[in-house]
# Entry
Amino acid sequence: MKFECLIWTALALAALGLNACGGPSSYTSEPFDAQVVDANTGQPIAGALVFAHWHLRKAQTLDTPGFVGELEVMETVTDNEGRFHIAGFTKANPGHHLLWDEDPEIIIYKPGYALDSFDSSYPVDQHLNLPAKRKSRLAGQTLKLKPWSGDDRLKATYLGGIDSRLNEVVRSCMWTRAPRFIAALAEEGKRLDERNPSLIFSSTRLEELPKNCGTNPGELKGKKQ
# Structure
């Protein structure tokens, strides 16, 4: 009876496009638009770099699920009205990993503002029942950036935290999918080091990016914000 139950469970998951040991064989993310504004004035912020990435995690097991890589990475920039567009896609998921509530996570950078991130933040009790086709909860939202008012030490903390979350991107050729954003963060880190050499924090440098990716890291200086 137990074996029969497992067979029916596997068949039911297959009908939903899922794997008995993990997530679906592919994910689809619908395109969406949102707007970036100044948190104090409500005015649109033009020229902000917008980085989007979709995390893949291990399927739920007895162990704590862990990060296994990026499903997709892309970047764009806000227009004069502070609006931006994130393209849709369908990508294979051969490892049957899980895409959770980062649907996607958005990180926004604009000089003079605090580096900030936003995600879809699905409730925890929905994480194991999220569909293979996703519609971001950021669609149509107004995302607010606060003008920066901290010192270099606090900025280094922010920058180091973002850099650690983008480890897979900056340590692989995925950085070529978001060259302006990666270059902007690297140059910001370099400026912090030059202003305050006593700061010790983790930040990617352009010369540290993997080469032989079809784009030379040295070329990024012309792409930075």
